[in-house]
């Protein structure tokens, strides 16, 4: 299939960049030292590919992600790294699929009660290590773990998420701050016990040496925000759009807007052009000075935040030529048609 036949906006995945990212990460964090996070990529085909690089345990953010991973035969060791107050779907999942193991994060008596009521068997104690989100106070972790064990649950260890440090670009400061955060988690782990100290993400995977496993997700596909870290990953994810209008006053418009890009980390980018703003269905940009764009031309934009961008789309279209052509498009603006080699459903979307 030719990319010109795709309905735009269309999510494109460069398979060369994807493979590079998976090889790079598997080399740094082999086997179970990485628990790839499905919240970023939401795609069981991609998760299956990650198993070829040695990763067999996965992190999930939603019950839907757990259900989809189990249905795809990838649910042997899932960590639901989020609090849930209605866990009966997890209980059902465990009863229906013998080979499934879902470990659920708890951080309060309410989440512990919900886990027991819904039929959860395994938990980790989620400890707040600095990000103002979920996680119990470190001083409460041991009490919660004891209560969980009394309630018949297996406590596999602790998790924490130093999300506030992912984009700390000062290496020395990041090192120091991650160490401080992880000191809280390690202290809690000493009291809680269990084999897991689960933490980290794409932005801290190189400095967090205290976790037994890192929960990174974005590294596989990348976005322009994470690119600022320059950690050796390549941009694999793009959104193809069709140029609708080229205005004489110096701007052009294409058909990918707020409903095609997660924008909380900023505007999408288009190398050689200046993206001005997005509205619901449009992106308005100032083309490169020598570009001769016409309505009907295709352009390929880079999202600033991969997770919400992927969640907007039903599928990713694969090709080994997306990133190469993006470089060629720097001169002309318009991108060339490329061969699409596969379609992967974004089958873990929703809740
Ligand atoms: C609990 C948790 N772990 C890990 C991550 C790291 O994900 P990424 O590697 O995509 O930054 C996130 C991202 O939000 C998260 O919420």
List the helices and strands and how they pair.
Layout: E1 10-14, H1 15-28, H2 38-41, H3 44-51, E2 58-60, H4 63-71, E3 78-80, H5 88-96, E4 102-106, H6 109-118, E5 122-126, H7 141-150, E6 154-159, H8 171-192, E7 196-199, E8 213-214, H9 224-227, E9 237-246, E10 252-254, E11 274-279, E12 282-286, E13 298-301, H10 306-311, E14 315-319, H11 322-332, E15 342-345
Parallel strand pairs: 1-14, 2-3, 3-4, 4-5, 5-6, 6-7, 7-8
Antiparallel strand pairs: 1-9, 9-10, 9-13, 10-12, 11-12, 14-15
Helix pairs in contact: 7-8
The structure holds pyridoxal-5'-phosphate.
Short note summarizing the structure:
The chain has 351 residues and is α/β, with parallel strands linked by helices.
Description:
- The chain is α/β, with parallel strands linked by helices.
- 30% of the residues lie in helices and 20% in strands.
- It has 11 helices and 15 strands.
- It has helices at residues 15-28, 38-41, 44-51, 63-71, 88-96, 109-118, 141-150, 171-192, 224-227, 306-311, 322-332; strands spanning 10-14, 58-60, 78-80, 102-106, 122-126, 154-159, 196-199, 213-214, 237-246, 252-254, 274-279, 282-286, 298-301, 315-319, 342-345.
- Strands 1, 9, 10, 11, 12, 13, 14 and 15 form an 8-stranded mixed β-sheet that branches. A 7-stranded parallel β-sheet has the order 2-3-4-5-6-7-8.
- It is elongated.
- The site of pyridoxal-5'-phosphate has 13 residues, from loops.
Rough outline: elongated
Q: Structural class, please?
A: alpha/beta
Distance, first to last CA: 32 Å
Poorly predicted tracts of residues: none
Number of strands: 15
């Amino acid at each position: 299939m030719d990319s010109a036949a795709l309905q735009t906006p269309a999510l494109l995945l460069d398979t060369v960049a994807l493979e590079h990212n998976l090889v790079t990460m598997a080399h740094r964090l082999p086997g179970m030292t990485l628990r790839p996070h499905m919240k970023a990529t939401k795609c069981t085909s991609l998760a299956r590919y990650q198993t070829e690089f040695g990763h067999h345990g996965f992190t999930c953010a939603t019950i839907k992600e757990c259900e989809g991973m189990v249905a795809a035969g990838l649910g042997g060791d899932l960590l639901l790294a989020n609090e849930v107050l209605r866990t009966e779907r997890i209980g059902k999942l465990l009863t229906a699929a013998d080979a499934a193991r879902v470990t659920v994060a708890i951080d309060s008596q309410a989440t512990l009660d919900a886990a027991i009521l819904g039929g959860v068997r395994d938990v980790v104690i989620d400890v707040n290590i600095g990000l103002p989100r979920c996680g119990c106070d470190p001083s409460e972790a041991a009490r919660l773990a004891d209560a969980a064990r009394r309630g018949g649950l297996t406590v596999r260890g602790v998790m924490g998420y130093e999300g506030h440090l992912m984009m700390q670009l000062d290496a020395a400061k990041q090192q120091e701050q991650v160490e401080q955060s992880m000191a809280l988690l390690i202290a809690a782990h000493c009291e809680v016990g269990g084999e897991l100290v689960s933490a980290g993400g794409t932005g801290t995977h190189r400095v967090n040496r205290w976790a037994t496993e890192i929960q990174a997700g974005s590294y596989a596909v990348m976005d322009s925000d994470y690119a600022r870290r320059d950690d050796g990953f390549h941009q694999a994810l793009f959104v193809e759009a069709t140029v609708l209008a080229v205005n004489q006053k110096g701007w052009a418009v294409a058909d990918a807007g707020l409903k095609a890009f997660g924008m909380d980390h900023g505007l999408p980018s288009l190398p050689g052009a200046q993206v001005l703003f997005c509205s619901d269905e449009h992106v308005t940009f100032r083309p490169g000075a020598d570009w001769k764009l016409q309505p009907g031309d295709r352009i390929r934009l880079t999202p600033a935040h991969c997770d919400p961008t992927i969640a907007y789309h039903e599928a990713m279209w694969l090709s080994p030529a997306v990133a190469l052509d993006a470089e060629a498009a720097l001169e002309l603006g318009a991108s060339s048609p490329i061969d699409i080699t596969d379609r992967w459903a974004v089958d873990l979307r929703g809740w």
